[in-house]
């Protein structure tokens, strides 16, 4: 594994890369279901919700559904799959409460703070996220990650979502960085890795999903392993 000597700017994805989305999301649903007396088993709910949510995020990324459509239908489809009846007004309330309370739980992946403390002394750090602006800003502040990053690019400010080349170019311009002196770190092969590589931006995949990837992709299973590259 060879150290990368030309890097000045490091761009991170947020959800599923630094911020442990799955764990925090599960805790949020548990909280709001108890608040609203939703009687479905949380493990059963999540077993349907997580793949449905991923499908809707892919549609959202591809500009095929709106933010509001995603927020409502990922819940509606999950309750339908469970054969659990929930009135529309409660689905909308749960959708709002989920966003409101999501940043109340702020588990990050093992090694996150150690890695950022190490990188901060050597590089300028940035975020590129497809998440919604208000939610992502709240997550960064509440988890005490915000002070590590010089710029934060989200899909709403850029007008497009990863893997669209425009969001990467928008982030590079905001950071006054070049593809030649920058690298992208994220968990999604399609959105983060392939999106970056398509514009000539180097990338490291945090492969906690344990997806099969080709040998030419830089991969780490633990965040602290990024030190081997940087």
Automatic annotation (TrEMBL):
Stored InterPro entries: HAD-like_sf, HAD-SF_hydro_IA, HAD-SF_hydro_IA_YjjG/PynA, HAD_2, HAD_sf, PGP-like_dom2, Pyrimidine_5'-ntase_YjjG
Name of one Pfam family that matches: HAD_2
Superkingdom as given in the UniProt entry: Bacteria
PANTHER family membership: PTHR47478, PYRIMIDINE 5'-NUCLEOTIDASE YJJG (PTHR47478:SF1)
Name of the featured protein: YjjG family noncanonical pyrimidine nucleotidase
